[in-house]
Amino acid sequence: MNISFKTHNLELTGELRTYAEEKASAVRKVLGHHAEDDISCEIVLSKDDKHATGLVFRADISAYAGAEKVHAVGHGESIKAAIDIAKDELVRRASHDKSKRITLIRRGRAKVKEWLRFGVAE
């Protein structure tokens, strides 16, 4: 899995990079039906310089696997909290897309079975 980082108003330390890479590995589990080399992840970390308190940190995570693209944003009081929120949202969206795809396949198979059993209805 290829992971690229971008930062804005924030220094990317080794500890922060390791933490973000660990959280990005959850994406690999959800997009596991793709080859390891086909999955790429782009993480953008930033700090809002206009506010001093509140949700000033932002984590943008985009995962690409073949033709699939999943994107999530997380805001938090610390950069690690923002990464956690973005990761959870990304996993939720990818799981939803996967279950939606499986449901459509099952409905299509049921329709074909119905056509074969009773003939094509007009």
Label this structure with key terms.
single chain; 122 residues; alpha+beta; four-stranded mixed β-sheet; 2 helices
Describe the fold and architecture:
The chain is α+β, with helices and mostly antiparallel strands. The chain is 47% helix and 28% strand. It has helices spanning 14-30, 79-118; strands spanning 2-8, 39-47, 57-65, 68-76. A 4-stranded mixed sheet has the order 1-2-3-4. The radius of gyration is 19 Å and the shape is elongated. The model has no long low-confidence stretch (mean pLDDT 85).
Indicate the percent of residues in helices.
40-55%
Annotation field: number of helices: 2
Order of helices and strands: EHEEEH
Number of strands: 4
Into which percentage range does the β-strand content fall?
25-35%
Major beta-sheet overview: 4 strands, mixed
**Judging from the principal axes of the Cα atoms, what is the shape?**
elongated
In short:
With 122 residues, the chain is of the alpha+beta class. 47% of the residues lie in helices and 28% in strands.
SSE order and pairing:
Elements: E1 2-8, H1 14-30, E2 39-47, E3 57-65, E4 68-76, H2 79-118
